[in-house]
Structure formats: structure tokens, C-alpha cells
TrEMBL record:
InterPro entries: CBR1-like (IPR045313), NAD(P)-bd_dom_sf (IPR036291), SDR_fam (IPR002347). This is carbonyl reductase (NADPH). SUPFAM superfamilies: NAD(P)-binding Rossmann-fold domains. Its EC number is 1.1.1.184. The lineage of its organism: Eukaryota, Metazoa, Ecdysozoa, Arthropoda, Hexapoda. Pfam families: adh_short. It comes from Chilo suppressalis.
Length: 321
């Protein structure tokens, strides 16, 4: 029987690294740590090796088709197929409130475009009964969308791939023309490009499930919680190991009835179509966590430096968000 293969994109650090760590401990097969930067990726492998884990490594930049094709060719030749694919690679906007076109395009090209490229090149390698986890966000739930036309389109359960692409293009065009309205998205349009990219990821997941259903393949998208990583400048309710639990559950343990679903960090399945729900990202949750950090750090005089750093961070966040 051929060796089983698990792949995690963007896994040189953060949640992806913790997913690799967890899979190395439990998955009966090879686990690929992949990264866009080879040096950072190989360093991450070395760190895991110090803990006795044995991930394999390959370069993979999801925003560079030639890199994805190279990796796909390698996997096909060496293993013939993929059993677990965790699409974790992602970026947040540099200026969350400014909606600059180049920044927005870059976020969408990586978070959504990268998934489309992976789908085109690597999905044909998925074995029957494989599992795919698309790491989305609370920004990916439909309740992030406030524009009535798009709510109507997506809450109709028959939306298509081209509807998702039109949604992404609509956003980018409106930013380019300067016609984007903050009221078209939740929380007064904060982190707009990220919300659009992740709504697209979760919507695409539903379509991918329908397309792969006949081969027993399961595809879900999930929100990992607000997690302390570089992406959040260390602010979060959860550690990367906490955050890796649900993607690992979806890759290895969840019942086959959970498919094409939108899954919360506590493993509950939410109704993605419930556009009136309260699952969307709120920037106040970041302020709340920052305040908690400051309180925690100030009660200990030894951590006064961290306290000062936290204040600097809260000022920076107030300016950015
Ligand atoms: N942290 C949170 O609170 C949170 C909440 C909701 C959702 N998420 C999602 O969780 C996932 C992981 O985020 P994180 O918090 O762990 O962030 P992170 O620490 O910044 O890690 C992101 C990873 O993605 C990689 N990456 C970026 N662009 C890539 C590309 N083009 N090709 C391949 N890899 C690429 C990064 O590589 P480099 O080191 O080269 O940059 C890094 O390894 C993302 O999809 C994010 O949107 C995070």
C-alpha cells in the first residue's frame, strides 16, 4: 500500500507549524511542512526535530503557480497522491482600515487566489476519501457581509464559483475606483480585504465539497479563534497549539457527516448561511484582549517592560484599526 501523505501550507510558523507538530504526533504517514521561504521552512523543521518529530520539507509558495506545480509534480512522482491537505497559508492587510488597492489585491491573491491555485494543481492528486481543511476565519462567515445584493446571492444556496469571483472583483474594483462603502461589510469595514478573502474561502469550500463528494473527499473550512501569532502581533485568546486542535480534528477525527461545513474553533458546526448571526470579527475583541494583557503584565513589576510594550501596541492598534 502506498505511503499516506499530509501537507500543510504556510507552516514554517504560527498555526500551520502547530498543525504540523500535531500531525507528526498522530498521523500514520509522512507530514510535509511547507513554506514560501526555504530557509525559514528548514529552520522550522530543525526546531521540530529537536522535539523528536520528523516532518519532511518542501518549498511551496501558494501565490506562485510555478512553485505549486513543482511541488505537485514532486508529490505525484514520489507518492502518487495526497491524503490530507491543510490550506493554512494566509496574510492580513498591512493597513486594516485604509483599503489601499495594492494591499487589498495582495491579501486576496494569497488568501483566495492561493487556494484556487492549490485547488487547480493539487486537488487532482487527492486520493479517494482524502480530507481537506481550509483555514478561514471569523472574517469568513457570511455575517461579515452587509451588502444586500451579496447577501442575497450567497444566502441562495445555489451560488456558483463565478459568483464568488464576482464578489472578490466587485470589492477590488470598488477599492480601485474609491467607491467602496465601509457599510458593505461588518464592523464598519475594518480589515475589509481580509474579510472578503476569507468569505470567498469559506464559500469556495462549500462548492469544493459538492464537486468532490462522489469520491468520498471531505472539505471543511474553519475559524481557529483569535490566536497569538505574528499575524495578530502576539494578541490572542489562544496559543498556536490550542488553535491546531480543530484543524487536526477535521483532518483525522471528525465524523464524515461534517462536510462542506464552516467549523468554529471549539469544533461546533455553524450555519455559514446565517447572515444575521453574530459570528463576524469585531476589532473590539482585540482591544479587549490587549487590555487584559496590560492588566496581567502590570500586576507583576518584573514585567513592566512588557506592560510598556503593550501600551505602545494598544496605541498602534488604535491608530491602525
Ligand atoms: N492568528 C489568528 O488569530 C487567526 C484568526 C483567524 C484566522 N487565521 C488564519 O490562520 C492561518 C494562519 O495564520 P497565523 O495566525 O498562524 O499567521 P502567521 O503566524 O503570520 O503565519 C502565516 C503563515 O502563512 C505563510 N504564508 C504567507 N503567504 C504565503 C504564501 N504566499 N505561500 C505560502 N505560505 C505563505 C507565512 O509564511 P512567511 O513566514 O513566509 O510569511 C506563515 O508561515 C491564516 O490563514 C490566517 O488567516 C488566523
Amino acid at each position: 500500500m502506498s505511503e499516506k501523505v499530509a501537507i500543510v501550507t504556510g507552516s514554517n510558523k504560527g498555526i500551520g507549524l502547530a498543525i504540523v507538530k500535531g500531525l507528526c504526533k498522530r498521523f500514520e504517514g509522512v507530514v510535509y511542512l511547507t513554506s514560501r521561504d526555504e530557509t525559514r521552512g528548514r529552520q522550522a523543521v530543525e526546531e521540530l526535530e529537536k522535539d523528536g518529530l520528523k516532518p519532511l520539507y518542501h518549498q511551496l509558495d501558494v501565490a506562485d503557480k510555478s512553485s505549486v506545480v513543482k511541488f505537485g509534480d514532486y508529490v505525484k512522482k514520489k507518492y502518487g497522491g495526497i491524503d490530507i491537505l491543510i490550506n493554512n497559508a494566509g496574510v492580513a492587510p498591512e493597513m486594516p482600515l485604509k483599503n489601499n488597492y495594492e494591499d487589498s489585491k495582495s491579501v486576496i491573491d494569497i488568501n483566495y487566489g492561493g487556494l484556487l491555485t492549490v485547488e487547480e494543481v493539487l486537488f487532482p492528486l487527492l486520493r479517494n476519501n482524502a480530507r481537506v481543511v481550509n483555514v478561514s476565519s471569523d472574517c469568513g462567515h457570511l455575517s461579515n457581509v452587509r451588502n444586500e445584493e451579496w447577501i442575497k446571492k450567497f444566502s441562495n444556496k445555489n451560488f456558483t464559483r463565478s459568483d464568488i469571483n464576482d464578489f472578490v472583483d466587485w470589492y477590488l474594483e470598488s477599492v480601485k475606483k474609491g467607491t467602496f462603502k465601509n457599510s458593505d461589510l461588518a464592523d464598519n469595514g475594518s480589515v475589509a480585504s481580509y474579510r472578503v478573502s476569507k468569505v470567498a474561502v469559506s464559500a469556495l469550500t462549500i462548492i469544493q465539497q459538492k464537486e468532490l463528494e462522489s469520491r468520498g473527499i471531505i472539505v471543511n473550512s474553519m475559524h481557529p479563534g483569535l490566536v497569538s501569532t505574528d499575524m495578530t502581533m502576539g494578541i490572542g485568546f489562544f496559543s498556536i497549539d490550542d488553535a491546531a486542535e480543530t484543524p487536526i480534528y477535521l483532518a483525522l477525527d471528525s465524523p464524515s457527516t461534517i462536510k462542506g461545513a464552516y467549523v468554529w474553533y471549539d469544533k461546533t458546526v455553524l450555519d455559514w448561511y446565517d447572515y444575521k448571526a453574530d459570528y463576524y470579527f469585531k476589532k473590539n475583541s482585540v482591544y479587549f484582549q490587549l487590555s487584559k494583557n496590560i492588566f496581567k503584565n502590570f500586576i507583576s513589576i518584573r514585567h513592566i517592560g512588557v506592560g510598556i510594550l503593550s501600551i505602545a501596541l494598544i496605541i498602534a492598534f488604535t491608530k491602525i484599526l
